[in-house]
C-alpha cells in the first residue's frame, strides 16, 4: 500500500499512527484482526525503515542487522544465521564486517532493510526510504523492493511523494491531500479514473491538463485531458502558441500557452513537430475527457 501525496499532507503522520508513535484522535488501528490503539510500539510487530537509514555508525553491518534480535534475546548463533540470510537476500553478505561509513547510500539503505527483514514483522512501514538515493540507484532499489515484497509476502506500507514510485511499486495507492484521503485504488485505476481534479493533476508525468470552467464543458464542470490524449489538430477546439518543445527520445512534449492556460501534449517524435513560436491547435476525443465538479473538484460522470 503506497501512501502518496505532497509534503505536509499527513502521510508520515498516518504511518506513525500505525507504528504507535502518534495517537489517532478518532478511529481504530488494526493489524490483522487485532486492534492496537492501546498497544506500545514495541508490541505491534512492525518494522520501520526511515529516510535517514538510522544505522548505528559504530557497529558493523552484521551488528546493525542483528541488533533487533539481540534486543529480543535471540541466541548468538541463531542471530548470526538470520542476519546472514537477510544480508544474502539484499546482496550484502560481502559487507558484513564493514561499518556504515564505509558503504554507499544504496548499501546503507539495504542494511536498514535487512535490519527490518530480520525481525519478520507483520507489517513493514517505510517512510520515503529512497529519497536520498540518486536517480539510477533509486530505480534499481525500487525493483529490489518489489521483488522483496513478492518473496516475503508481507504487508508493506510505503510513504512517498514520488508518483513514479507509487505507479511502479504499489499493489494499491492511497492518494492524500491536506490530511484527507482523496482516492484508494490500483495504480491503473487511480490513473485512468481519478476521483478528483487534485488526483488527476498529482498522478501522471506530465500531469493532466485541467481546463478552466466552461471550456469543452458546461459552466459547472472542469474538463481534464491527459497529455497523451491531447492531439495536435488543424481544426482543434483549443488554440495556443508553442513556448517549449522537450525532446525525450521516445517521445516529445509540446508546451503551449493558450486561453485555457498552459497545455502539455505528448507527441510521437516521428510526426511533423511544431517549433517554438508556432501557433497550434489541439483537440481530444470525447471519451478521453475527464470531468470534475467546478466547486468540489470531485469527478462527475
TrEMBL record:
Report if keyword Nucleus is assigned: no
Domain ABC transporter, by residue range, is 2-203
InterPro entries under this entry? AAA+_ATPase, ABC_transporter-like_ATP-bd, ABC_transporter-like_CS, ABC_transpr_MalK/UgpC-like, Mo/tungstate-bd_C_term_dom, NA-bd_OB-fold, P-loop_NTPase, Transp-assoc_OB_typ2
Q: Gene Ontology cellular component?
A: ATP-binding cassette (ABC) transporter complex, substrate-binding subunit-containing
Keywords attached to this entry? ATP-binding, Cell membrane, Membrane, Nucleotide-binding, Translocase, Transport
Q: Which GO-annotated molecular functions does the record name?
A: ATP binding; ATP hydrolysis activity; transmembrane transporter activity
Asked if the Swiss-Prot or TrEMBL record annotates the protein with the keyword Cell division, the reply is no
Mind telling me what this protein is named? Unannotated protein
Amino acid at each position: 500500500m503506497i501512501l502518496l501525496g505532497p509534503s505536509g499532507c499527513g502521510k508520515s503522520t498516518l504511518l506513525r499512527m500505525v507504528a504507535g508513535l502518534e495517537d489517532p484522535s478518532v478511529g481504530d488501528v488494526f493489524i490483522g484482526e487485532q486492534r492496537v490503539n492501546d498497544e506500545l510500539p514495541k508490541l505491534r510487530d512492525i518494522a520501520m525503515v526511515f529516510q535517514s537509514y538510522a544505522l548505528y555508525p559504530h557497529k558493523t553491518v552484521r551488528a546493525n542487522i542483528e541488533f533487533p534480535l539481540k534486543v529480543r534475546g535471540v541466541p548468538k548463533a541463531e542471530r548470526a544465521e538470520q542476519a546472514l540470510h537477510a544480508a544474502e537476500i539484499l546482496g550484502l553478505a560481502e559487507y558484513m564486517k564493514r561499518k556504515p561509513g564505509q558503504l554507499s547510500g544504496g548499501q546503507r539503505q539495504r542494511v536498514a532493510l535487512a535490519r527490518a527483514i530480520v525481525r519478520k514483522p507483520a507489517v513493514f512501514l517505510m517512510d520515503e526510504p529512497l529519497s536520498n538515493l540518486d536517480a539510477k540507484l533509486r530505480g534499481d532499489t525500487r525493483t529490489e523492493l518489489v521483488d522483496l515484497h513478492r518473496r516475503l509476502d508481507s504487508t508493506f506500507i510505503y510513504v512517498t511523494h514520488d508518483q513514479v514510485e507509487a505507479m511502479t511499486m504499489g499493489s494499491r495507492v492511497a492518494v492524500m491531500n491536506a490530511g484527507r484521503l482523496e482516492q484508494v485504488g490500483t495504480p491503473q485505476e487511480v490513473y485512468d479514473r481519478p476521483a478528483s481534479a487534485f488526483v488527476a493533476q498529482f498522478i501522471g508525468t506530465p500531469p493532466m491538463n485541467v481546463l478552466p470552467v466552461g471550456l469543452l464543458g458546461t459552466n459547472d464542470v472542469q474538463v481534464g485531458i491527459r497529455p497523451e490524449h491531447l492531439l495536435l489538430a488543424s481544426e482543434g477546439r483549443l488554440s495556443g502558441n508553442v513556448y517549449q518543445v522537450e525532446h525525450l527520445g521516445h517521445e516529445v512534449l509540446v508546451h503551449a500557452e493558450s486561453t485555457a492556460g498552459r497545455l502539455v501534449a505528448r507527441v510521437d517524435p516521428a510526426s511533423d513537430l511544431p517549433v517554438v513560436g508556432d501557433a497550434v491547435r489541439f483537440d481530444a476525443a470525447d471519451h478521453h475527457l475527464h470531468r470534475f465538479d467546478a466547486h468540489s473538484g470531485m469527478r462527475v460522470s
